[in-house]
Each structure stands twice: as C-alpha cells, then as structure tokens.
Amino acid sequence: MTPTKSPVNTEDRTSSPVEDDAGASHARAKEGMAGLAKGLAIIEAFGANTTRMTVSDAAHLADLSRPAARRCLLTLVELGYLAHDGKFFTPLPRMLRLGGAYLSTSSLPQIAQPLLASARDTLQESISLAVLDEGYAVFIARAEAVRIVSTGVKLGGRLPAYCSATGRVLLGGLPEQQVRAHLESVPMKRFTDRTVANLDGVLKAIRRAAEDGYAISDEELEIGMSAMAVPVRNSAGEIVAALSVSVFSGRVSIETLRENFLPTLRETAGRVQRSL
Predict the structure, then answer these.
(1) Are 143 and 12 in contact (CB under 8 A)?
(2) Would you say the C-alpha torsion 77, 78, 80, 84 has a positive or negative sign?
(3) Which of 26, 206, 234, 251 is the most core-located residue (most Cβ within 10 A)?
(4) What is the secondary structure of 183-246 as a DSSP string?
C-alpha cells in the first residue's frame, strides 16, 4: 500500500518572527529540510505492494522530479537503507530501524504484545493492534498464529481505513465532519466485488461500527479473507487503537466471528485499556 499523500516539500528556509505594534512575537522561526522531506516520502512509498522501485516509480509515488528522486534513492543506498541492482531499488534490513524507533519507545505495543499473544492462543488465529495514520490503519503489534499460510498484514503493514475493519473502528472515533472530509479526499477503489467504496456506504459502515462496538470486513480486501476489529480506548474514553483478528473465511464464518471471537477480542481490548 502507498500513502495517500507525501510530506510537503519545502525549500530550506528560516523566517523571522513577526511582531505586532506592541512588540509581541506572533510567529516562531520555522525551519524545513527539503531533502529530508523528499527522502521520507520515498521511504513511505515502499510497502506490501511496492517492494521495489525504479527512479520513475519513486518520482511518481513521492510526487518528485526524476532528478530529485534519483538523488534521494542513491543517498539511501549510500546510507545502507536500500540496495540497487542497476535498475531497481529495494529496502535493506537497516530500514527496520526507522519503525523500530517507534516500537521501542512507545508503551502501547509493549503493553499489548503479551495480551495479543494470549488472545492468539485462545482463538488460534493471528491477532493485531493498529493505529490510524493519515487514512491508513498501521499495524504496530501482532501475535502470529503458526500456519502454513499466514493471514492478514505484517507488523508495520498499512491498510486503507475506509474498507478495513480496523480502519472503520479507528475512523469511528473521530467527529463525523472530520471523517467525511477524509473520505472525500482519498480515492476509493474496489479491491474485490464486495468492497464498499462509496462515501455513503463507508459512512454507514463506520457509524455501524461505532454503534456496535466492532467492525467486520467480509472479503472486502481479498477474496477468502475476513477480519473483525474492536476499539481500544484510553482513560478518557478516546479510541487510540483497534484490536483485530484475521481469518480465512472458508474456515471461520462471520457468525463464528461474532459469537465466538468477539467476546475474546473485547476482553483483550479491555485488558489493554486497563494497562494504559
């Protein structure tokens, strides 16, 4: 998946504070590093569906000129974040350090991990925790069930919020005006013939998730795959994450998700909440 937008590219600059007639400062000095912003835009463009890039790919996905994209890619190669075979650029293990900085300093993944593992052992299915980031559900903790074929996304993976169970739960915690503005700004596409990809339908699904306290995505992202998610709230009652389970729909029915899986997910979410 690719981000809905890249960081704003600005020239390196410093602006002086603006003062009114009384001499009070109204603006702080602002500094920006255009090169850093461009490099991060390219890094964020890598994902499950974009595992390698040419210079043209990077320029298109990060909304950069070809020369700027090439300079950024070669710099990332020099720093050990990317490999280059003469045509394609691919991520190297050092890229994990970037996500690891968040995972190692945020308490949420650390608190949740043993609780996710307990729920996985109970349900014998993979359990994940995701947060909202610019219209995507980003997975920050995961307990993987041992199977020949795994289900769901990997740690650090991103799913579009409008058509994923986790995303709809997370969007359900925002004011409707903000949700509507977001949905109107992102291109919605149908991944399968079951994908809800229109504004009214997605808003209805988000409202239902907020009312029911859970959301289900039934083969909307991939045929044969279903998911259920519940909210995780902080002490103020705000939704800070979504706890989810991914299953093969041929093995686990929607009825089983509701009747047998939902109680465990809610119990686990409650345990995470009490630990925050």
Answers:
(1) no
(2) positive
(3) 206
(4) HHHS----SSTT---SHHHHHHHHHHHHHHT-EEEESSSSTTEEEEEEEEE-TTS-EEEEEEEE
Q: Amino acid letter at 91?
A: P
DSSP string, 1-40: ---SSPPPP---EE-PPPB-TT--B-S---EE-HHHHHHH
Rg of the Cα atoms in the chain: 21
Which residue carries 């890598």 as its tokens? 46
Contact 126, 271 (CB under 8 A): no
Same domain (yes/no): 66, 112: no
Distance CA 237, CA 232 (A): 9
CATH of the domain at 111: 3.30.450.40
147 and 180 assigned to the same domain: yes
Q: Are residues 241 and 142 in the same domain?
A: yes
Model-level pTM greater than 0.70? no
Q: For the chain, give percent helix, strand, coil, nearest 5.
A: 45, 20, 35
Q: pLDDT for 154-202, tens place per residue?
A: 777 889 999 999 999 999 999 888 898 888 888 899 999 999 999 999 9
